[in-house]
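Slide 14.
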Amino acid sequence: MNFIRLKKNIYKLLKNEKLVEELLTELIKKCIQAAKLDYKNKISYKADGTAVTRTDYIINDLIIEWLNKYFSNIPIISEEKDFKNVIFLEKLYWIIDPIDGTSSFIRGEDNYTVNVALIENGFPKLGIIGHPPTNTIWYGSNNIATVNRNGNSIKIKVSKFNNKNIRVLLSSNPDRETLKLVKKMDNAFIEKYSSSIKFCKLAEGKADIYPRLQSINKWDIAAGDAILTAAGGQLFNHNGKKFQYNYLDKQTGPFFAATSEKYLTFFVK
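Slide 15: predicted structure.
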């Protein structure tokens, strides 16, 4: 295989799904190792007041260097890098979050992840998430989702619809309106997590729905969206339509990540 030739034609390279998965998996393995280095106490604050660590920047640079090396000419949007919002309108672009759940990472907790997704025509084409504390990697593309735990990779699928005991995932600090909505459900079992790990639990069939009425940044959900969709679920907007990324704002509106559209009857009227 002539990799140089494939690299020059990015669409031919992306069609080689096995090679793309191998390249991204190797990248996430490197990110996982970087996250385990003791930089988490090197904390600074961005203009919006949110905390960022040296590890955020190290992983950010690692991802960007890797993507530019193997997938050149595709624009990149990152939480830790200046970008022009017009990239959201591009046909093809990467969107990354070097550490999703930075606050949890700073506190020494396990609820943080590394996220990389490729958006094509407004929807995630593929996504990969790494969980450094457990050496776990989730990958999703073209209706196939996998989880790799310490080198053992298996396919994953969402669970079947069950309206008796609905497993609801919320962020660690859910907004008031989302809580009000969920409390109207008599049969909801609630768990709270930081980071995109919520999407991974949905994709593995360990939960049913993740509703969120408060805005969040697109890079927080894109990789999880890709994995959930590949596993048979879907990310819906507040109107119950498939969530799209091709608009200029970096933030989302309300959304519902679910293993089945049937769960939307609880939220979308």
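Speaker note: The chain has two domains: 3-156, 166-266.
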